[in-house]
Write a structure and sequence with these properties.
The complex is a heterodimer.
Chain A: H1 2-18, H2 26-45, H3 58-85, E1 94-99, H4 105-117, E2 121-126, E3 130-135, H5 138-145, H6 148-157
Antiparallel strand pairs in A: 1-3, 2-3
Helix pairs in contact in A: 1-2, 3-6, 4-6
Chain B: H1 3-28, H2 32-58, H3 62-91
Classes of the chains: A mainly alpha, B mainly alpha.
Chain lengths: ~160, ~110
């Protein structure tokens, strides 16, 4: 089942990038199908065709989470841009620990990547429960420590 | 000048300005770790706005599909590479500069 799903995704991606929809170039199409099959075979040999790669159930919850993330990114961008342009450079870098309440590895990665995507905070290290975050300002550190983003990732993606 | 052109420029110009601010941040910020935040501006909103402006120019064609894929790939890989660079610096023992540049050398813990 996973192999069929992966083949469809690989071939769809190939179609989108190559733009060969018609049967005009049969050779190109055949090479495309062959290379997709080869990729799926290689992925099977590497045994990376597992539950994580097959996470369609996350799409709907991601559709809820991503608009909020984009809004957070825009706000943080404007804040950091203002601070860079300010001649006094009002920054106060610090390193804080943030607890992530996610259970699966994939959701922890999504949380850590969300932290890094928001300018002003960069996730430096991950251990069993905490994420070490470098924050550019006190406000950014307070924001990420308030746990708002953590809650949103957990409730949106793990329920 | 159609509406699509206007929308496109509305995205392209702030995107370019944000990319330049990101570059300025790379120069102005005091140490390695804080410079990563400057690069973050160019990576996220700067690149997204430029690509969005180009999507308006592309219209509903294959070009736009490829631009959307570029945006997704960029938004997945740039935080990962930032994290890799930051973690490499942390494990090799680079000490972060803490506190306000106004009172140099004095860390503030509040």
């Amino acid at each position: 089942m996973r192999y069929i799903f992966m083949s469809i995704v690989a071939f769809g991606t190939w179609l989108l990038w190559s733009g060969h929809y018609t049967l005009e170039h049969t050779l190109v199409l055949a090479i495309g199908i062959l290379s997709c099959a080869f990729v799926v075979y290689l992925a099977g040999r590497l045994s990376i065709v597992d539950e994580e790669g097959y996470s369609i159930h996350l799409i709907w919850s991601l559709a809820l989470y991503i608009p909020w993330l984009i809004w957070a990114i825009i706000k943080a961008n404007i804040d950091v841009a203002k601070r860079i342009l300010n001649p006094r450079l009002p920054i106060a870098p610090r390193i804080v620990r943030v607890t992530g309440t996610q259970k699966t590895d994939l959701c922890r990665v999504i949380f850590a990547n969300s932290i890094t995507l928001t300018p002003g905070t960069v996730s430096l290290d991950l251990d069993e429960e905490d994420i070490v975050v470098h924050a550019l300002t006190k406000e950014a550190a307070d924001d990420v420590q308030s746990g708002d983003m953590d809650r949103r990732v957990t409730t949106a993606l793990e329920q | 000048m159609t509406i699509v052109d206007i929308l496109s420029w509305i995205c392209l110009i702030p995107g370019c300005i944000l990319c330049m601010i990101g570059g300025l941040g790379l120069l102005r910020l005091p140490d390695f770790y804080s410079r990563m935040h400057g690069g973050g501006i160019t990576d996220t909103l700067g690149a997204s706005l430029v690509l969005l402006g180009l999507m308006f120019q592309g219209g509903l064609t294959m070009v736009t599909v490829k631009l959307v894929m570029l945006l997704v790939i960029l938004l997945l890989t740039s935080p990962t590479s930032t994290h890799a660079v930051g973690k490499a610096a942390l494990t090799s023992g680079l000490k972060p500069f803490l506190g306000n540049p106004d009172n140099k050398g004095k860390n503030e813990h509040d």
